[in-house]
Design goal:
Layout lengths: L18 E4 L5 H11 L5 E4 L1 H7 L1 H7 L6 E7 L3 H14 L3 E5 L4 H11 L4 E5 L7 H6 L6 H15 L3 E3 L5 H8 L3 E4 L18 H7 L3 E4 L1 H4 L4 H17 L3
Parallel strand pairs: 1-2, 1-8, 2-3, 3-4, 4-5, 5-6, 6-7, 7-8
Helix pairs in contact: 1-3, 4-5, 5-7, 7-8, 9-11
């Protein structure tokens, strides 16, 4: 049984709210400008390592006036006490989502869940979308990738973590494993876009049809000639996926 129940069954109802834009840029002015430009078509602003390492909590403060939930993607992985205290600090910043590595183990995950309180949804990172099955085996993990992701998902569920980060390719399997936990999928590439350094990718429609709740989109929006229109196209693709389920 879960140590605590912080799982979230609040699935976003609007297509735009299913999109988290990754603000992987080099300065706060650019991050704020990009966030404001795409805000009519996205529901969440993601602050990753690049911005946070360079600017710290100022990255969160600079984006707060945009008025959208902030997703702090730090992928915490350390001893339980350190992670618990770090989660508490993130909670005080007022962010809505925070990532921790599911492979940190039950004690670390429970410490994180206990520190999260209400209003902060923790997301357990299962297997990075850049990792292939062959690479996972090379790291000494004997289980097939999907089976390993399932085991990590169970560990998060039992610790009271609210959601999971998973590639779209494992969404259906993890949905069967963890029920209504929030499933967040990076590695989203619109049709025709390059996969770049991502190994396990999907289009927005594929991810939604497989059961993803929130899609993380970075370069396809950031690097587009018109980021606002790129975000709008993804919003429309989600709406079409809802209208014509497979």
């Amino acid at each position: 049984m879960p140590v605590s129940d912080k799982s979230s069954s609040k699935t976003p109802s609007r297509a735009r709210d299913r999109i988290a834009v990754a603000l992987d840029v080099s300065n706060l002015e650019e991050a704020r400008a990009l966030a404001e430009r795409v805000s009519p078509h996205v529901g969440v602003l993601k602050v990753g390592l690049e911005l946070f390492v360079r600017f710290g909590i100022d990255a969160v403060r600079a984006l707060a006036p945009v008025g959208l939930p902030i997703f702090l993607d730090l992928k915490l992985h350390d001893i339980p006490e350190t992670v618990g205290r770090s989660v508490a600090s993130a909670r005080e910043l007022g962010v809505s989502y925070l990532t921790v590595h599911a492979s940190g183990g039950p004690k670390m995950l429970r410490a994180a869940a206990d520190a999260a309180g209400d209003g902060l949804t923790l997301l357990g990172v299962t297997v990075l979308t850049s990792i292939t099955p062959a690479e996972l085996a090379g790291l000494g993990v004997p289980a097939p990738l999907e089976e390993h992701a399932r085991a990590l998902a169970r560990s998060c569920r039992d610790a009271g973590i609210g959601g999971l980060i998973t590639s779209a390719l494992e969404v259906e399997a993890l949905r069967q494993e963890v029920g209504d936990m929030l499933l967040v999928t990076p590695g989203i590439r619109p049709s025709g876009a390059s996969s770049q350094d991502q190994a396990r990718v999907a289009t927005p429609a594929e991810a939604i049809r497989r059961g993803a709740d929130l899609l993380v989109v970075g370069r396809p929006i950031r690097d587009a000639a018109d980021p606002r229109e790129a975000a709008a196209q993804i919003e429309r693709e989600i709406e079409r996926a809802w209208a014509t389920p497979s």
